[in-house]
Structure formats: C-alpha cells, structure tokens
Amino acid sequence: MPGIVCAIRGGPNSQPTINTAISLAKDKGLPVFFVYIVNLDFLSHTQTSRVSILSEEMQELGEFILLSAQAEAEEKGAYSDGIIRQGNVEEEIINACKEFDADYVILGQPQVKESENVFDQNRLEAFKERIEKNGGVEVIFAEKGE
Amino acid sequence: MKKVNRKLFLIPILAIIGITLTWNTSNSQAQELENSPYIIGIIFDEQGQQIVDAEVSLISNVDSEPLSKTNTQPDGRYNLEVTDRIPDFLSIHIERPHFEKVTLELNQAQIQSLRSGETLSIEDTVLLRRINPAFWIASVIFVIVLVLIATGKLHNTLAAMLGMSLLFIISYIGGYINEDLFIFDFEGSLNYVDWNVIFLIMGMMIVIAIVEKTGIFQWLAFFAYRISGGRMWLLLTILMLITGVASAFLDNVTTMLLMTPISVQIALALGINPLALLMPEVMASNVIGVSTLVGTPTNILIGSYGDISFNDFLTNLTPGVILAFIGLLLYCGLIFRKDLAKAHAPSPLLLEKLAEHGEITQPVHLKKAGWVGLGMVILFVFGEKIHLLPAVTALIGATALLVWIKPNIEEMIEEVDWTTLVFFISLFIVVGAIQEAGLISFIATGISQMVGSSLILSMLAVIWLSAILSTIIANIPFTAAMLPVIGFLTATVPGANTKVLFYCLSVGSAMGGNGSLIGASANMVTAGIAEAAGFRISYGYFLKKGFPALLITVSLATIWLLIRFH
Question: What is the ipTM score, two decimals?
Fold first, then answer.
C-alpha cells in the first residue's frame, strides 16, 4: 500500500514535518506512516551502557510521540499509522520506504547546530539523493522548525 | 613377614626423630633471628603520609652489595634485619620512584648499639617529592582523560581505559628505557583500586536491575500525575520528591533513565514543555542523592575512602539536603511557572496510553525487592556495629534477591553495567598515577597553604571549589582525585577530624553537578532522552537554569554544615 513516510522525533521542531505530511496525505489521498527511530548514541556521553532498559523506555516514549501525531492526523482528516524502529536513522528511513512502498518521504530540517544533528544540510541533500536512487521515492523537505 | 613388620615399626620412629630434628633446627634458627639486631623506622612524605613500598637497604660502603634490604609496609614502617658481621661504617639507603633518594649515615654509637644486639630505632624520615618526566606524563594523561570525558569525544569508559593503557605503556616501555619515565607497575596500580566501591556498585546494580523492570518508577510518576489533580505545583513537588528519594537509594543515572521518558509523556499529555519537569527532577536527583552513602557515585567514593558510614551521611547531611531541596523547589516553581501554567487537560487517548505505561508490570518481584530493600537499609544503618561493609551488604542483598526471584542469571548478569565498573577501575588507576607521581601532594600542599589552619576557610574552599569545578569537569574523576587531598587536610587542619571536609566534598561535588550539563552523568542521560523526544537541553540552557540552582542549594547546604560542625 503506497503512502507517505514521515520521520519524526517529537517536539516543536517536528510540527512542520507533521503538518506537511498531513497536508500531502489529504491532497494525494494517501496514508501517512509516522516513523520514530530510537537512537541511543547519547549514551556515549556517560559511563553507563544501560541499552536494554533504555531501549524499552524509549520505545514507550516513541509510541507516545507517534500517538500524538496520529491523533493530530486523525483530527485533520488524514489516515495514519505509527512505526517504531531502532538503529541508524538513515538506514531505518530507507527500510521504512521499502517496507511501505512509499511514494513520498517527508524530512524535517531541525534548527540545531549542524554538528549535533543527524541531518545537517549537506548530509540531508546526500540522503535525499540516496533515497531517490533507491526506489523512485520523492523526498520533500518540511519548512524549518521554530 | 617379621622383617616387614619391623620395617613398618621403624617408620613412625624415624618420622618422630625427623620431626624432632626439624623442630630443633627451626628453633635454633629462630633463636639466631631473635638475637639479630634490627633497625626500625618510619618513612613519611612531606604531607605526613606514610610511604609504602620504599626500598630500604643497609650498606657498608657505596660500592658493595647491601648487607640487608627490605620494603616499607602500608604504615610506612620498615624493619631491617642486620644478620651479617657489622662493619665500622654503615648507612641506610632509602629510595622510591618519584622521591629524592636519602642516605642516612649511622654514627659510631648506633653501630655499637647494633653490635651489642640492640634494636636501633631511627627517627622518622621524610622523603621529598621529585618532579621527573613521569610526574608530567601522569598529569598530562589525567588532563587528557578529563578533557575527553568533558568534550564527549570518547565514551567515558573508553577515555579512562585509554588513560590507563597509556600509563602502563609508558611505565613498562618508557620505564625500561629511562627509569624517570616509570610511574607504577600493574601490581602497584591495583593498590589504588578501591574494591569496596566496585563491589558496592556491582551489588546495587543487580538490585536496581530487578527493581527497574517492575515498573515502579513509571507507576510512581503516573501516581504523581493522578494525585496532583491538575495542580501543577503539586505535580512538580511530588515528581521532584520521587526522583530525589529514589536517587538517594538507587543511583541518579538509573533513576533519571526511568523517570525521564514517563515525565516527557506526562508533560506532552498536559501540553507543557517537558523541560519544565525534567530540569527540576534531575536537579532534585543531584541534591537529595547526597543524603545517603549509596545515593551518588561520589558519595560511594567518599564513604569508602573516608570510612564514613551510611548513618554518618544520613545524620550529618540530611538536614542540609532538606534545606537545599526546599530552596530548589521554590526556585524551580518560580522559573518554570510560565511553562507549568500552560497545562491543559490531556486527551483521553493520551491519558489511556499514559495509564498503560504507568502500571506495575511485575508485582511479585516488586514485593520481594521491597522486603530485600528494607533488609538492606537495616543492614546499611546497623551494619557498622558489626563492621559490616556497605559493599558486603549490597552483595548479600543482591544475592538474596537473585535466589528469591530466580531470574535468568545470565540475563541478570548482563544487566550489570559493566562499562561503569570498568570506568571506575580504570579511573582509579589514572587517579592513582597522579597520586603516585606526586601531583596530588602538590595540590594538597597548595590548598593547605591557602587555607592555613582555619576550619571555616577549609570548609568553604572545599565546598565551593568542588562545586564550581564539578561544572567544568565530570564530578566522579574530580572527586576521586580530591580524596587524598581531603584526607591530608582532615589530618592537618585543626577540628577537621570530624570528617567535615569529606561532607563538604560530598555536597560540593554532587550539588555542583547541577551547575552544568556535563556536571553529572544523570544530566547527560536526561538531556539525551529529552533530545530524542525533540526537546533539546543545550549546554547554555542547562547553565542558565542550573547554575543559580547550584548557588542556592550549595549556599543552603554550606549554612547547615557550618552550623553542624563549627
């Protein structure tokens, strides 16, 4: 079933991404698959390695964030579903595109220091090319967040 | 047959003769030893600390082989046996890496005394520190480890392991080429590892691994939401108390690791910025954790080094912690009032999800963990009467819980945070190197000269120096490095023998963790989870909110310590 893959991680910076995905879903009559990817790289800044328990907690958190986005989509008249993945953000978005035979991918452009973001501008462009080469999926960038 | 019997009869007789001869021989040797004169003495460093493992030799002249040789014990004492013929000239040669060599010439009266078989007591010897390349290398490696941890360029454990490995490479390979590059060998480095700390942390980790799977934290957070009935100040107070009290008995990192996701969900459901709950929670965790021996990693280090019991921490710090918590609560209520005022009733869908997450998942395990936890607290409190070390209590508690619950032991052992244990072992060795090479002695002397003999000045210096430095460098390595310095000040500053300076270090290093994002591991974990949910806690944001909290809480705790100990 074709649809729109929308990678989010919650917070105000994800709102434009969610809005773009919902508008597109309504225009094209496609479902939105909100994707939340659990990434535990921040543990490298501590001496702990509580991957197992933290992974479970982050999945719960991810489900909650997805549920919020789904509730918003439903309220605005778009059909949506939520998917949790864990691991490398780029790889998991590509996998989700393949899994749901996506027509579109919506990517956000959060406004934090480039070095601290998975999607800095250059990498974002390279990632867009990679997704498009991988299976004819159209990549749409959402407006920049607050 | 008779011959065989006769032989059998001879065996016990020969055995008795053999044993008797051996007994007599060893007795006569003992008599010879008893008659041998001894030279005894104690060796100190400039700070009055006993020096262990210094090589003490008795020589008749510079070129000859030593007549006798020994090493100093942990109490700095040596006992040099003089077995040979006693010549006319004798001197004692003392040497140890990182210290100036000392030669003490014995006068004729002393030599005569030895000849008459009397034990000769040498007056206390002070060895002076020597700054050699090893001193600079150990210091630079320590700084590199601190920088790697502070900047996050390497995982904390990897940074400490890198430092430890560099020390060994330089000691073994460099030391082979030039003895001035030698810091310590592997065996010597292990003397600096505090195994009481390692086993206490390990035991607590097993207990925590069982407790955290029961869903108690999530249930408590949801319970706070329910009983607050939409009153945000009450929700904030209860969440801060839950986090703080949990941190006092478990560890800050685990507490925040479990409280942060559910708190973010509560905040999202209420439509408020999650940071308005997370920042007060993590700061409460850093403040209230100070009140017990097991509440913070720094307290575990301090308790073990300073021989401070669970009770001592409770009685000497709890009133100060309560005072600091009240200050923190008022401060948080004030700075987050606008965020909290935006709360609205949650949607039924989100509330349902929240309630689902806020359930006790393993009630039987929780009940058993509760009983064992209670037993552990009793042992922590009363165990000191029977000299029961906290590490032993933690291990007994962990074992009792494992036996009672019978979980998959392999899974349970995997739950132990081995990287933290390796971090501590590596860190002890890195800090041990600067202690061995003399950096700690220089710092101790410097602080001692700064504060003189004033207890108040010492207390203020230790609290505020450790609080401010904890905002720049991670507080665990900082505290580990400061322990010998505090030990020295405790021994030299009049009135400090109440161990007040250790409490000052405890307050400063833990509450100082609130001053910046890198000040405590719990801060980093909270920030990481919040960012993964789309709410960033930047270094600047944490500094802006956290540093005033540091000033308020540390000031209030300082007032309490001054009232209590002066």
Answer: 0.82
